[in-house]
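Page 47, continued from p. 46.
Same chain as before, 709 aa.
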Amino acid sequence: MSKFAPQPFPRCVALGILLCVVATCPHAQTAAQSSAAPGSSFQTYAQSAAAARDAGRFDDALRDYQAALKIDPSWQEGWWNLGTLLYERDHYAEAIPAFQQLAELAPHASPAWIFLGLCQFETKDYSHALENLKEGQRLGGIDDPEIARVARYHLALLLIHDGQFDDPDSTLGSFAITGQNSPQIKFAMGLQLLRVPLFPEEVDPSRDALVQDAGEIATLMAREERAATLAAFQAAIKKYPDAPYLHYAYGELLSVRGDVDDAIAEFRKETQNSSKSAVAYIAMAYAELSVQDTSEALQAAQEAVRLAPYSQKAHEVLALCFRDAGAMSDWDREWDAAQKLFAEKPRLEDWIIDRYRAPSAARSTNGTDATSGDDLWAAAMKDYSERHYAEAIAELKIALQQKPEYGTGWAVLGLSEFNLQDYDNALIHLQRGQRLGMNASPESVAQAKYSLGFLLNRKGEFSAAEQELMSIAAPGPLTEQIRSVLGLSVLHIADNSGSLQAWQPGLVEGAGEIAALLRDSKYDAAFSRLDDLLKKYPSAPFLHYTYGTALASLSQFDEAAKQFRDELALSPSSELPYLGLASLELKRHRPADALEPAQHAVQLAPRSATAHYLLGRGYLETGKAAEAIAELQHASAITPGSPEIHFSLAKAYAKAGQPAKAEEQRATFAQLNTLAEQQRGQQGNQSYGAHDAGDAGITSVAVPADRPQ
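Result:
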């Protein structure tokens, strides 16, 4: 699957679940039910295949299933086992005939169609993949939530790629609502909102920040967070004033809210950014009709038909304009045209594809053909070392199309963008590089991590910024560069200007020094420095919070509580001091006292997994199992990978008399806890602060070879 695809689901689980679906189909046959007589060669092959499959002998199972199916090609379970055996080993092309046979034998078995479509997606047979995934959805889909998620995601990708942006199945909002909104899903949602008919891996990396921001808007819209959605739209339009379909999407939202005049203004702006598109003109015509401005509606509709004579919607709205204007003969003509075009498939817009598609790998570099990944990489590194960042970016875009899993390449792309102050794309690509693994000198890795910490702080992700900066800070005094940015993170000051001169340097540097002292467990020195800074800067944000967090780690709960309350007076709109107080009360075994601060935290930060978790813990430990389950489920939806949340959910379900759900949560906790312990063993120094459970730290992964392979 593409580099943007969700993590593969556990296919061994899928096989067992879906086998039950097919085997219980009215027409399903098992080996025992086959037309072959007992003791026949079919029975021998079928039993041998099952034994080999259970023993993990892939080649033997494959050979015996094929032999049995030659004898009895109507054996449905055999086709299913053969197909899934090939599928779970990524032999997609070979699995397709098996699922095709199964779909013919059991046409109402939705898993057959869904797995057929997924295999065709992997072999780039996109038209048939779309057709068969839709058929699988029509027949009822799959009960297993993880498999359903993968199928739903790929169906949406195919519909977006096909230009069917308005198809309900292309909408991924349900993932956002349930908290399963991975960066990959959010990126696809951005493609849909911007009406870009490409797969994520086909998008020019320089457009990643725009698409990601659009995905964030789409996420907020799906969650019906109205104020945040409006603010996000306005910020994005200011940031990307010429981005096609951004004004259109904003106008659609305003129209739904009943702000028709403002919606019309946005549609009008969209016609300037998308002069070749009929979409905004159609929307504007409908909006003008709704306020009975027939003249303006008629002009917009006529322009829509001129731009898209094949569009059923364009002819339909023009017909309505003629009707309202009293031109009934024109109404009849246009309405008839609209009906004839009813089933017209959306046509892809070449101009939007050209705007977003990544450069071709056939492009030459420095006047010479350089189509291999190695040559492009060498040229990019030469340009990067000579500070020719724009040239390096152009070469890396092409190289990374060929080697999309090469983490070092993404990191160098991010560093090049960082040096050109393209901070939004730099953040995305540095994070991707670190996730995939960077293989470079310690100095280069440190520079990438520093840049990433700077960018995370700039975005307001302060805990993650602290973790990055601490991971490259040697024991003892910090460098001036790290100390300054770390101080901003401690103080929760996003340095959007890229310059530290706007802030009082003594405060910022002092906060950075405190972070280093706490990391080195030099608490007395850290507390003394905190006292000095608070005397000099009594209104400094988050120094009291930092003080309280450090005191709490030493079990000095009364003193910590005082610091958190002092922070509340300075930062009343922040959930962090409330989280600190709630956590303290739970540690002191006073859950009733934890409820009020946890409730305040939830009100201030409804998307904070920590806030819901602490509130759920408070309810659980005061005997309110139903309320605890609701809050902990909310926390789990936001951060499904937290072992602590699943552990508490298991206890809540047990108290509520739901042992099956409790056992399921205990099993999930055990798996996640093992994974978390492995990750902790791979991480270096961590920040001293209390981090939100929803803020996943960025850690290094296995490094690839020195050069792209």
